[in-house]
Amino acid sequence: xxxxxxxxxxxxxxxxxxxxxxLRQQRNRSELTVxxxxxxxxxxxAFLANEPVLDQAGNRRAWPQLASATSRDVVRFIADLSSxxxxxxxxxxxxxxxxRSFYKYLKFEGMRSDNPAADVPPPPARTxxxxxxxxxxxxxxxxxxxxxxxxFQRLRAAAIVELLYGSGVRRAEIARIDLSEVNLRDxxxxxxxxxxxxxxxxxxxxxVAAIERYLGVRPHTTDPALFVSVSGSRLSPRHVWHIFKEVxxxxxxxxxxxxxxxxxxxATHLLEAGVDLVTIKDLLGHESVATTQIxxxxxxxxxxxAYDKAHPRDRMDDV
Length: 319
Known about the structure:
By secondary structure, the protein is mainly alpha-helical. It is built from 13 helices and 3 strands, in the order αααααααβββαααααα. The chain has helices spanning 14-25, 31-49, 71-82, 89-108, 135-142, 151-167, 171-176, 205-215, 237-249, 259-272, 277-284, 289-292, 294-310, and strands spanning 182-183, 188-192, 198-202. The protein has a 3-stranded antiparallel sheet. The radius of gyration is 22 Å and the shape is globular.
């Protein structure tokens, strides 16, 4: 009898698996968060063992070293991430959160008497403006197709990229959309956001047309998801990211672009067009307008760039 193939997307360390179940059931965390925390913990386990994260066959490992890690180990790990590995401050702070959550869970379960990550100070956060593309760059990305893809793959990718920019949704939210939640006639889609919160987003006519073309080649399947694989199963957030990355790779755009860049571009372009912050807040699914406020800084940054490019004074010979 053939053995079932291992699912390499699932951690094999028992404590990490149980921590993930705790996050889902008790903390109501999304699958994207659970997966990110698991990979952070595996990275720490590999650091403690001085081993690669994956074994020679490319499989995920168990990390018994995690259970006995000390505060000094956590400090060394954070220092290694910030220096030798070159992680940015946001990523480092997220990994500290992962460790704190994991050891809090072990303490809760009576497997430890302390939390070695609790008192480790995070690196200072740096205020960084989100990156947005200019409209011509967005147009360039939207028109990009991969010649090596099938018509189904091309139309699915086009619909995903149009939806990212046309609604400002996150990639994880795209993966959770069901067909029944898409109203193309009224150009409204129901979205499941962070923390099980739901909202409705408006989409433009170009996005509607792209989705309609994709639906014309979507495989017949019982899966309720809007976006599915060739086999008819729901795409994961990681799969959405991979599709986007493959399009971006041949787009010719030099700036680093992610699905979240289109979310920032969506908000910035609406603000530049005169849409009020409260409306943008609701479309993005932010809890507070204070979160959306950062786009006013980005909008001014874009205006400054346009000013510098257009005003001739600094290019005159006597300056």
